[in-house]
Write a structure and sequence with these properties.
The protein is α/β, with parallel strands linked by helices. The chain has helices at 28-31, 38-49, 64-77, 95-102, 111-123, 130-133, 171-190, 208-221, 247-265, 277-288, 302-311, 324-333, 343-358, 406-425, and strands spanning 19-26, 52-60, 80-84, 107-109, 137-139, 143-145, 154-158, 163-167, 195-203, 226-232, 235-244, 269-272, 292-296, 315-320, 362-370, 382-390, 393-399. The chain is built from 14 helices and 17 strands.
Length: 427
């Protein structure tokens, strides 16, 4: 920690390892949707890495009254409150004032910070204006944390209820401060000796409710590790999180629960942690040295894009079709009969046709039909038919929805990748 002594000190760190934190992201631009709050997600990962619980994340605009209200509530329910943003030079940068008000302090100028600001501006050939002098102001008695990557120093205030730590909203400034100053401070102050580590198991071909039905007892009965699920279009993530003295110990706690989850969900689990369905399929195509071509209509190239992102060298050709005449040309070029009105028969013929016409080892076809004039972005009414053709084998999948929205296109892509994965693995 930098160049100020905290007003309250502890001779020995408390023995507790249960530390609760709250992140308060400050800035009206966050509420207006002009900027996405990626800072909070990044800080959350760093806190989990040292075993700090994060129960709340709050966004508040540049209004001192609302900021004071939010910070007061945060101090009442968390040991550590980390704010991002609002410590720059402009009139709407009000974090100093809000922190001072909620902890019963005045805002004062920190002399050393003011000198450093003047020197930094002089080196760049600029004059330090009055508004920039605001960046040297802190709540009285706060600890200044030098910010080598920017002009606004960070600071922390230790209060009877907990500690408020204020860092800039600029991501590269914030990240350096969290890693090099804030995390070491938290370790020392609270005697942190644990980590929170988690394993993600990624599932396709089962909806969220089906996953919950199969592993719900683990979710309800878990304490350490805890088990939770997160649904995406076409995919469900199962998270197993454990608190322990280090990552290895956490993995030991996770291991038996992971075994049980894998037994219950079987080959619907396609990957873990950072793996994607695209990366898994791409690896299988590379390992087997197989080429692939795709046909799509309503999905608009989502499947072709997914395959190319993971195994571009294995991709031969992609057809995105928006008319029956183009569809018929592909079928004819592949030596197939005119397309049937039956969805399964049609998509299987398309998978064979795109394979034969392109000369690829695999043909993958996604054919969808919407019902009526709809404007929904997710789970549109209709039918999606998917087929994979390899040599003389064709595998089929049906989904009772169809749409042009991004979630529906993503769902179609994942379902297609999952069917391809299963065929490549012989499942």
């Amino acid at each position: 920690m930098s160049n100020c002594t905290p007003t309250t000190t502890q001779e020995t760190p408390p023995e507790t390892t249960e530390v609760n934190a709250e992140i308060v992201a400050i800035g009206s631009e966050l509420l207006l949707g002009q900027i996405v709050d990626s800072n909070s997600a990044w800080i959350a990962q760093r806190l989990a890495g040292v075993g700090v619980n994060l129960f709340y994340k709050t966004v508040v605009g540049d209004n001192e009254g609302r900021m004071v209200s939010i910070l007061g509530k945060a101090l009442d329910r968390a040991d550590v409150v980390i704010t991002t943003g609002g410590i720059g030079p402009t009139q709407d940068d009000l974090t100093r004032e809000a922190v001072a008000a909620v902890t019963g302090r005045e805002v004062v100028t920190h002399p050393e910070s003011l000198v450093e600001l003047k020197e930094r501006f002089q080196k760049r050939g600029f004059i330090l204006t009055k508004n920039n002098e605001r960046q040297a102001q802190i709540p009285e008695g706060a600890t200044v944390i030098k910010n080598p990557n920017g002009t606004a120093p960070a600071f922390l205030v230790e209060d009877d209820r907990g500690v408020i730590i204020s860092v800039p909203g600029v991501p590269f400034e914030m990240k350096w401060l969290i890693d090099n100053e804030i995390i070491p401070y938290l370790r020392d102050r609270y005697g942190l000796s644990q980590v929170i580590h988690y394993k993600l198991l990624k599932v396709t071909d089962l909806g969220e409710s089906s996953v919950d039905h199969l592993i719900g007892h683990l979710i309800a009965d878990s304490s350490n590790p805890t088990v939770g699920v997160l649904a995406h279009p076409g995919q469900v993530d199962v998270r197993i999180a454990a608190r322990a003295v280090n990552e290895a110990a956490a993995q030991e706690l996770i291991a038996p629960i992971e075994v049980e989850v894998r037994q219950l969900l079987g080959d619907n689990i396609f990957g873990e942690d950072d793996e994607t369905i695209e990366s898994v399929v791409g690896t299988l195509l590379e390992q087997r040295r197989l080429t692939i071509s795709t046909y799509e209509d309503l999905s608009g190239g989502a499947v072709a894009d997914a395959i190319q992102s993971a195994a571009d060298a294995r991709f031969v050709e992609g057809a995105i079709v928006n008319s029956n005449s183009a569809l018929e040309r592909i079928v004819t070029a592949g030596g197939e009969s005119p397309p049937s009105e039956n969805g399964q028969a049609r998509v299987e013929a398309l998978a064979r046709a795109i394979r034969m016409a392109s000369g690829a080892d695999i043909g993958l076809a996604v054919h969808a039909v919407e019902e009526g004039d709809q404007r929904t972005e997710n789970l549109g009414r209709g039918e999606t038919h998917i087929a994979v053709s390899i040599a003389d084998d064709v595998t089929y999948h049906h989904n009772a929805s169809a749409g042009r929205g991004r979630p529906d296109r993503r769902r179609a892509s994942i379902n297609a990748m999952s069917l391809l994965r299963r065929m490549l693995l012989g499942l």
